[in-house]
Amino acid sequence: MNAISEAGFGERFVGLARRAGLDLAYLSIGGVTAVIAFCVWVTALSVTLSLIVFIIGLPLYLLSVIAFRWTAELDRRNAALLRGRPLRATYKDHKGESFLARLGSTSRDVQTWKDLGWLVVHSVLGFTFAVVAVSLVASVVAFLTMPLWFWSIPGGVDWGLWNIDNLPLALLATVPAFPLAALTYYIDRWMAMGELWLAERLLEGEEAPVDGAPAGSGPNIPLSSDSLRRMIPAGELSLAVHAAISGLIGIFVTVIWLAAGAGYYWPAWVWLALIIPLSLHLGLREAVRNHPDRRGLAILATVSLVITGVTIAVWGLTGFGTFWPIWTILGLIVLFVVVLLVQLAWRQLYGDERERELTERVETLTETRRGALDVQAAELRRIERDLHDGAQARLVALSMQLGRAEEGLADRPEIAALVRQARAEATAANAELRDLARGIAPPVLTDRGLAAAVEALGTRAPIPVTVEAAELSRRPAPVVESAAYFVVAESLTNVAKHAPGAAAAVVLRLDDEVLDVTIADDGPGGADVTAGSGLDGLRRRVAALDGEMRIVSPADGGTRIEVRLPCGW
Amino acid sequence: MRVVIAEDNLLLREGLVALLREREIEVVAQAEDGEGLLRIVGGHKPDLAIVDVRLPPTFTDEGIRAAVEARKRHPEMGVLILSQYVEPVYTAELLAGGEGGVGYLLKERVGDIPAFLDAIRRVADGGTALDREVVAELVGERRAEAESPIDALSPREREVLSLMAEGRTNNAIAEQLVVTSGAVEKHVSSIFGKLNLSAAGDDHRRVLAVLAFLRATDGG
Predict the structure, then answer these.
(1) In terms of Cα–Cα distance, which of A504, A229, A443, A237 is closest to B89?
(2) At B2, is the secondary structure helix, strand, or coil?
(3) Max CA-CA distance within chain A?
(4) Chain B residues whose C-beta sits inside 8 Å of any chain A C-beta
(5) Closest in B85, B111, B217 to A400, CB measured
(6) What ipTM score was computed for the predicted complex, to two decimals?
(7) A462/B141 touch (CB, cutoff 8 Å), yes or no
(8) Based on the number of CB atoms within 10 Å of its own CB, is B178 exposed (0-12), middle (13-18) or buried (19 or more)?
């Protein structure tokens, strides 16, 4: 999905208007520079060539070169409108060269000849483009404002097929302004791109820096016409091509009409035929961007609007008789209303399908997440049990056998010492496994439940801890128990670490829905609750169970950690 | 001495039996779960039961529960719990019912055969044998509760009491702390005084002191 389709309609409109304005400005200025270029190259070439046989022609030749460069510079500056920074070119440095040397070096300067080429091409192309661009925009404005000025033309505005001499007709005449505006936009776009493309080829020096302009140095639009995809977003390229082809066909047909001596403006039918698919293209593209729920209605509305426009246009082109399109319009309105009502009724009956889908999805996710957590908790207990029955039991058996071996080696004290050392290693390994197992799934928690495990934590803590856990009438799910246990363990460790002189109180409360765990201490407060601390890990653990964790740790003393774990499952 | 063993892990059970038989301690019966323990204790009336905490079918604290029940039925029998875990809660539960004849050792202590045999004999004779890690956890990091008489003890007296809880004699304690046995005797009588254990014989007072100490840790 490109950026354009994500922006709101208002934003997109502003963006389009801004780009259209820049294109028009670029093409109009190009038209003026085209006139200047024409004057310059025609004058320079005719004068210089005619006088070249005389000595006087040589300085004139140099003067012409300067004129070419200056004129070309105008278009380099103009390019800044579209690409954010002007085009750059470097010429041969003539400083310190003699007159004759300068003649030679100038004639070998490629950029100067490219400038001349540009001036010749631009004087024709730039002028034509400017005229087309300005006339198109002027037509759009003229149609759009027709109701304001039609009366000032004596006898009404004669527009080929019909004569606009009353307000309703003038209002009707504003309708074609919209498709014409779309056409204008794309035709201008392509003309501007074409002109800029040529300018870059001819006016930009070989060694010019590439896209080195600092950000924000000019209008915020793509810098180079090299990639049309950047200038015209991917989704709009097909539309642009469509509009440009339609516009060119229309202009071509109009030219034929003019050449055939004007008269009945039959190209209006051609325009109509061109505009129908174009408006369908544009309208459907917009409609499809709608929310899936409204997409059907949007497509229906677009098609209806196009059909309405076509029938009205046909009615107008056939000379405004009885307003028969009213039947088409009425039919379409009825159809739209019926579809709308059916859709509303459907939703009323079956609910918003999307919302239902989302609800189901959330339910599934909640269930599976919970399932994953339960599986994980069970897995941890299994690992603990495996350690207990496997590695730890083997280490114990090993200790026992080493002990017996030691006994039997009473007469070989040096070997007995080795065996004793081995036994000490086995004991140490067992102690490490014991700590590991306790960190994974504390046996007392598995065996006796949360209250007993928390009391054991309190006993074990190096600070005075009171535990109030009388109301634990049943055992919450293992995963909840384990989360609560580790919250208490980590909190008490924190208290002992950061407030060794403090006393702590742990309160556990369990009702039908929620397990409340509160750990309060009378330490100095100001606990670090930022990401990365142990508390942050606990917070995530609690959040995974849809629980909440609140830490109140004022700087003037005392820290209170409150955890609410839902356990209604 | 007649001993029964409740241990579900075959490797360990066989190892224990072999070890004890070498030392001419008679293993009269073996069980694999809590119910089996109660049955063989009822049938053989042993001097001592060596019990693993985790037994089938629940693999949680079956052993403790069965041992508590067995002692309720046969108070004269000693119970030595073997566990992979340091859990003072279990020790306290075990001691709550009787007056000594209780031990709680980490399983790997079995490797130190003389000490293990010593613990077995002591528990069978009605003494205590608590693992030094359990004791360390109880003493070294105990919370201070103003009402507990344990808090009246000086640090040195607590050290002595911990060693008593492990089941050491006065001489062994003196050796450990590098003091004379006379000094240890002084500490011990001071402990008895502070814990109000003036009557009864010395051995029994030692057990009571340890019990008081353990009860003070069991949530007050």
Answers:
(1) A443
(2) strand
(3) 136
(4) 9, 11-12, 15-16, 18-19, 22, 54, 59-61, 84-89, 106-108, 110-113, 116, 137-138, 141-145, 217, 219
(5) B111
(6) 0.80
(7) yes
(8) exposed
User: Which has more pLDDT, A401 or A448?
Assistant: A401
Closest residue in A to B90 (Cα–Cα): A444
* Residue B217, min C-alpha distance to chain A (Å): 7
Mean pLDDT of chain B: 82
Q: What is the mean pLDDT of chain A?
A: 82
Which of A434, A455, A462 lies at the smallest CB-CB distance from B84?
A434
The average pLDDT across B68-97 equals 83
Q: How far apart are CA B5 and CA B50, in angstroms?
A: 5
Q: What is the pTM of this model?
A: 0.52
Q: Do strands B78-83 and B102-106 pair parallel, antiparallel, or not at all (unpaired)? A: parallel
- HSE on the CB side for B138, CA within 13 Å? 32
What backbone phi and psi angles, to 5 degrees, belong to A347?
Answer: -65, -40
3-state secondary structure (DSSP) of residue A558: coil
Within 10 angstroms of residue A178's Cβ, the number of other Cβ atoms is: 16
Q: Which long-range contacts (CB under 8 A, 24 or more apart) does A311-315 make?
A: A312/A172, A312/A175, A313/A175, A313/A272, A314/A272
CB contact under 8 A, A452 and B89: yes
Provide long-range contacts, Cβ within 8 A and 24+ apart, for A73-76. A74/A33, A74/A36, A75/A30, A75/A33, A75/A37, A75/A118, A75/A122, A75/A126, A75/A199, A75/A203, A76/A199, A76/A203, A76/A204
Percent of chain B with pLDDT over 70: 83
Query: Which two tokens mark A296?
Result: 């059907």
b/e per residue A294-311 (b: at least 16 CB within 10 A):
eeeebbbbbebebbebbb
* Rounded Cα–Cα distance for residues B52 and B64 (Å): 8
Chain B residue numbers touching A434 (CB-CB < 8 A): 84-86, 106
Question: From the CB of residue A447, how many other CB atoms can be counted at a distance below 10 Å?
Answer: 22
Residues of B in contact with A423 (CB under 8 A): 111-112
Q: Is the pLDDT of residue A427 over 60?
A: yes
pLDDT at B143 (0 to 100)? 44
Q: What is the pLDDT of residues A523-538, one digit of tens each?
A: 887 776 665 567 788 8
Cα B92 from Cα B79, distance rounded (Å): 13
Across chain B, how many H-helices and E-strands are there? 10, 6
**CB neighbourhood size of A46 (10 A):** 10
What single-letter amino acid sits at A453? A
- Assign A161 a pLDDT band (cuts: 50, 70, 90): low
User: Which of A85-89, A214-218, A385-389, B45-49 tops mean pLDDT?
Assistant: B45-49
Share of chain B above pLDDT 90, in %: 23
Interchain pair B85, A465: CB under 8 A? no
- Chain A residue with minimum CA distance to B92: A456
**Contact by Cβ (8 Å): A191, A133:** yes
Secondary element (H or E) of residue A330: helix A325-350
Facing residue for B87 by CB, picked from A396, A423, A444? A444
Whole-angstrom distance, CA of residue A51 vs CA of residue A39: 18
- Which residue, among A189, A154, A155, A150, has the nearest Cα to A172 in the 3D structure? A150
Omega within 30 of 0 (cis) for the link into B57: yes
